[in-house]
Amino acid sequence: MTTYGGDEISAIVIDIGSSLSKAGWSGEDSPKVIVPSYVGSIIEDEGNKNSTTINADTTLINDVNNNNSINTSSKKNNKKYIGDGQISCWRENMELKNPLKNGLIEDWDTLEDLWDYIFNEGLMIDPSEHPLFVSECSWNTRNIREKLTELAFEKYQVQAFYVAKDAVLSAFSSGRSTGLILDSGGGTTSAVPVSDGYVLKKGIIKQNFGGDFLSEQAAALIESLYNITIIPRYKIKSKEAVDAGIPAKFVEYPRPNTTPSFHQYAMNQVMHEFKETICQVSENPYRESILKGRPLKCYEFPNGYNNSFGIERFKIPEIMIQPREFIIQKPNTEPIDTTNLLGIHELIYRSINLCDVDIRPNLYSNIVLTGGNTLFNGLMDRLNNELSMLAPGTKVRIHASGNSAERKFGVWNGGSILSSLGTFHQLWISKKEYEEIGKSIVEKRCN
């Protein structure tokens, strides 16, 4: 029997997240390929196919277009751009697409573009020579799993295939087969109970907001409090140094035909950096009178505006704990319905209570935090305090890697570990089994 993922044949492990896509080799400590889960696309009209975009980055952009564009579409004038350096570079009429919506694969063409990039540009391998291990969200559907299986065997001709639930992989990454996995990434936040390596589906609770939503909220709060407009980097031609709190002095590039998808991505990148630099969660229940006494932190935005920020450092991540009270309703936009939104401690509490009584203590003592949106300082202490109040007398233990990379790549790391185990080779779906049984085998084999 061929040992996939062992010394004979290396398996490919792929985790497509809502913000980042990770790929690499089974058994390795970290992914080799890390790229944003977005594909830039420019579809030019026949009449404009010879037009030239003129801007201050013309040389850079021409280099990018000539050397690094990935032409994966059958349309002659459709260019694709993948990778942080590609999609962060402004281009006229460039749309950014993400394959996922609420954790589920919705745009299959974009998924294929990402896989093509991973195989051809990232790992530089022929996928038909390797088995493929991919992650899926814990609430994935049968139709999507079967389509993934079909894609792997029919288009990429992989030798073997397996799909595993992200919560199980996060548990394995932390050295556990049982636990409550709190995963907060760019697009979703979920609480998923895992017992002996299996997801307890009745306990899954998720909300369709994560780090991207928090970044949008951060921008709205800062703009309203300080009466400023946050300008993303692609618009800044030059700037002057100004004192703290003084309006920025800068010159903007004319950026005609910028798509809303590119602008929102660029805005989120600015606010992601803002959050990661100065925001933190209040370790104890939010009390503004106390938090106002905490030290200020300075931050400068791309256009040169800078200030010392205080209470807003805590207000932004507090949305994760008290969304109904702290979500900002932006003017001239559709109101956000906060009625049924839960704090992340409430997600954990409700998820565990949906499970059998005898397993609850084990889940409470094995709460695992994963995903980039769980990296705020103070979050672990706050969750401990909140859960101790929700479930008095219960032993609560929260586990999270102190290494930010491990927290962001927990799902991929779990896949690397699981697929390299000596006992795992019998779980692979082989090409022969796929040809004999068909795509329905994935539902029986990959639980």
UniProtKB/TrEMBL annotation:
<dbReference type="GO" id="GO:0006338">
    <property type="term" value="P:chromatin remodeling"/>
</dbReference>
<dbReference type="InterPro" id="IPR004000">
    <property type="entry name" value="Actin"/>
</dbReference>
<dbReference type="GO" id="GO:0031011">
    <property type="term" value="C:Ino80 complex"/>
</dbReference>
<dbReference type="GO" id="GO:0042393">
    <property type="term" value="F:histone binding"/>
</dbReference>
<dbReference type="GO" id="GO:0000812">
    <property type="term" value="C:Swr1 complex"/>
</dbReference>
<comment type="similarity">
    <text>Belongs to the actin family.</text>
</comment>
<protein>
    <submittedName>
        <fullName>Actin/actin-like protein</fullName>
    </submittedName>
</protein>
<dbReference type="GO" id="GO:0003682">
    <property type="term" value="F:chromatin binding"/>
</dbReference>
<dbReference type="GO" id="GO:0006357">
    <property type="term" value="P:regulation of transcription by RNA polymerase II"/>
</dbReference>
<dbReference type="InterPro" id="IPR004001">
    <property type="entry name" value="Actin_CS"/>
</dbReference>
<dbReference type="GO" id="GO:0035267">
    <property type="term" value="C:NuA4 histone acetyltransferase complex"/>
</dbReference>
<dbReference type="GO" id="GO:0005524">
    <property type="term" value="F:ATP binding"/>
</dbReference>
<dbReference type="GO" id="GO:0006281">
    <property type="term" value="P:DNA repair"/>
</dbReference>
<dbReference type="InterPro" id="IPR043129">
    <property type="entry name" value="ATPase_NBD"/>
</dbReference>
<dbReference type="GO" id="GO:0051382">
    <property type="term" value="P:kinetochore assembly"/>
</dbReference>
<dbReference type="Pfam" id="PF00022">
    <property type="entry name" value="Actin"/>
</dbReference>
